[in-house]
Amino acid sequence: xxxxxxxxxxxxAKKAHAPHSNFPVGATIVxxxxxxxxxxxxxxxxxxxxxxxxxxxxxHMVMDGGGEIAEIAVFxxxxxxxxxxxxxxxxxAEFGSPKTLxxxxxxxxxxxxxxxxxxxxxxxxxx
Length: 127
Hints:
By secondary structure, this protein is α+β, with helices and mostly antiparallel strands.
């Protein structure tokens, strides 16, 4: 599954709207029931108003009825093994679990797979 997620994240990054940073990012989620959702970063000249690729993928998942994130792949053509930012780590935690796999990718494929618990220790949790 990680190989397909990598390919889909690469394709998503090609759709990024990143005219200000020139740093496209793509992300693809697979839910516990096997559905996939991709997203790319969408920048705005007012930087805080942009969306990260992971946020876009999560929004697509929510629009399709939600679910639990089982795995997510993140890809940026200009940085090998990119990790989700802190805000996106918490967003992934909102819809995933400590066992959610986060695949860090380069142009050739998955470089490392890490659990969300290892990537975001002591995360805020759902009550």
